[in-house]
């Protein structure tokens, strides 16, 4: 049996003129993609069957046997070329992202730029995948021995990426995997396969050998589950919901697993905070990509002394945001990824209001879309606080002091990143030590991320770290090598060949 590559059938003129995209290998039923904004049909994408996936994995194993020996300079060259190709095609990629995910175009352009940066960092880090020297003679039994570690690629990495950053979160899996000489089977979210397919095309154009990157398209419940369980896969890296992440951890067996599972990010605004800065960053961090970011600001814990002043600045800033078509250059917030997600967020907001919360601004517009929303008088047990809302909603809470603000922030079974606004260094250090998260951003929102920093959470937010250098550590196996110095004639300790008899008087 051989696989047939079919073109994606483009059904809309919303893409770059003349745009053509090759489909994944496979003979499954074509999947129709629709715009999250207005439901217009965008494309029909051929899907990957279970039989197809068997062949994909066989080809991946064969590709690994040769690609694993690719020298670092060559891997760096491919990744650098990929970075340049992403930059050269940035507008085309941004329109792909905006169309299939509903992300505002200006945000999609930022994602395209970050994707290029991620591959550029991967090119640099591919030159630094060596191990380290081990001081064997630090122990008496290690005398006359020399030791070092080697980092070796794991093999076939299954990368399961989400819809909210269809380029850059795929890049954070694919780029370090390739930098470390692994091969990748990439399964993008069913709602956003086009960007992943275009990324694979650009990598091949950059010089990546055949089958080192392969994209499979289909539902996670079947295709993704088979990937996770298959013995030909050596590692799974996943970004998505906590329930799916826990299932992957259970199904993966002895495979290495990296899981990034989201958050209900808290931001603390202390009494001495720079309020204009805090408001500006909280609005940016709460409503970027319509709040569909793992580290979106969700809970804002404000010192009671500045609460009224903070709210007087926050509400008009939120009201000024424009809800609209993602392809409109002036749009700040657009639709959620699906009508079902919009309905879920609406129900959570309504439930909070029924339980005593106050709608300060926002709510549902006449077309049923969620406007940028702020809720006050919330309690910690409401869904809008206790769970990840993944929508354009901020919940504002009061605290008596920084200690209580930290306690409120830690009252969560998730812990990805948190933000703290304060001018007091001692308070900043206190918060940095006491907040139960994987990253603390001082005078910044938890939504802040640069692509080479370590990124990941604790508690229910997952296991492992992304960020190129840190992801490469997890995508490689450590091998210890020790060599014994010896006298080859006697088998004993080595003789100093340069030793001299002492000079006479």
Q: Low-confidence segments, ≥5 residues, pLDDT <50?
A: none
Q: How many DSSP-defined strands?
A: 23
Integer average pLDDT: 94
The percent range for strand residues is: 15-25%
| Oligomeric status | single chain
Helix content: 25-40%
Q: Which descriptor suits the 3D outline?
A: globular
Structural class: alpha/beta
Question: What is the number of helical segments per DSSP (H or I, 4+ residues)?
Answer: 15
The value of Rg in angstroms is: 26 Å
N-to-C CA distance: 88 Å
Structure description:
The protein is α/β, with parallel strands linked by helices and 505 residues long. Helix content is 37%, strand content 21%. It is built from 15 helices and 23 strands. The protein has helices at 50-67, 72-88, 90-101, 105-125, 168-179, 193-205, 220-229, 242-251, 275-287, 307-319, 339-354, 383-386, 402-410, 425-434, 468-474, and strands at 5-7, 9-10, 22-25, 31-34, 41-45, 133-134, 145-153, 156-160, 183-187, 213-215, 235-239, 256-260, 266-269, 299-303, 358-364, 370-376, 393-399, 414-415, 417-421, 439-442, 458-459, 462-463, 476-484. Strands 15-16-17-14-13-19-20 form a 7-stranded mixed sheet, with helices on both faces. A 6-stranded mixed sheet has the order 10-9-8-11-12-22, sandwiched between helices. Strands 2-5-4 form a 3-stranded antiparallel sheet, with no helix packed on it. It starts with a strand and ends in a 21-residue tail after the last strand. The mean pLDDT is 94.
């Amino acid at each position: 049996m051989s696989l047939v590559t079919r073109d994606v059938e483009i059904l809309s003129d919303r893409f770059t003129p003349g745009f053509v995209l090759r489909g994944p290998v496979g003979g499954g039923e074509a999947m129709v993609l629709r715009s999250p904004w207005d439901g217009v049909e965008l494309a029909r994408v051929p899907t990957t069957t279970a039989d197809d996936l068997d062949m994909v994995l066989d080809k991946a194993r064969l590709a690994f046997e040769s690609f694993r020996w690719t020298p670092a300079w060559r891997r760096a060259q491919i990744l650098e070329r990929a970075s340049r190709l992403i930059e050269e095609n940035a507008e085309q990629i941004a329109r792909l992202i905006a169309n299939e995910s509903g992300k505002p175009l200006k945000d999609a352009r930022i994602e395209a730029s970050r994707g290029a940066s991620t591959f550029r960092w991967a090119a640099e880090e591919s030159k630094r995948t060596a191990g380290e020297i081990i001081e064997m003679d630090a122990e008496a039994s290690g005398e006359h021995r020399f030791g070092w570690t080697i980092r070796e690629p794991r093999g076939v990495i299954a990368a399961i990426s989400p819809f909210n950053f269809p380029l850059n979160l795929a890049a954070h899996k694919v780029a370090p995997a390739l930098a470390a000489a692994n091969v990748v089977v990439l399964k993008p979210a069913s709602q956003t396969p086009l960007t992943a397919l275009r990324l694979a095309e650009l990598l091949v154009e950059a010089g990546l050998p055949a089958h080192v990157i392969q994209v499979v398209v289909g539902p996670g419940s079947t295709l993704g589950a088979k990937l996770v369980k298959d013995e030909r896969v050596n590692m799974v890296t996943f970004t998505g919901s906590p329930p799916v992440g826990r299932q992957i951890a259970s199904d993966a067996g002895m495979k290495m697993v990296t899981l990034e599972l989201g958050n209900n990010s808290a931001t603390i605004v202390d009494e001495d905070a720079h309020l204009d800065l805090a408001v500006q960053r909280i609005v940016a961090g709460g409503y970027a990509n319509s709040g569909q970011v793992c580290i979106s600001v969700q809970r804002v814990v404000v010192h009671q002394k500045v609460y009224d002043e903070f709210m007087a600045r926050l509400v008009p800033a939120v009201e000024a945001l424009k809800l609209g078509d993602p392809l409109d250059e002036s749009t700040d917030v657009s639709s959620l990824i699906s009508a079902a997600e919009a309905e879920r967020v609406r129900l959570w907001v309504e439930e909070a209001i029924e339980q005593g919360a106050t709608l300060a601004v926002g709510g549902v517009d006449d077309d049923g879309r969620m406007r940028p929303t702020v809720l006050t008088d919330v309690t910690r047990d409401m869904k809008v606080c206790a769970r990840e809302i993944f929508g354009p909603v901020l919940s504002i809470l009061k605290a008596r002091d920084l200690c209580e603000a930290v306690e409120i922030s830690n009252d969560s079974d998730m812990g990805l990143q948190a933000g703290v606004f304060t001018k007091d260094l001692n308070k900043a250090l206190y918060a940095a030590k006491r907040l139960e998260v994987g990253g603390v951003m001082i005078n910044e929102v938890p939504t802040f991320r640069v692509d080479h920093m370590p990124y990941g959470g604790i508690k229910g937010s997952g296991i492992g770290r992304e960020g190129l250098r840190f992801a490469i550590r997890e995508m490689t196996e450590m091998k210890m090598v020790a060599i014994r110095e010896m006298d080859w004639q006697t088998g004993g300790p080595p003789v100093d060949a340069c030793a001299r008899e002492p000079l006479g008087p």
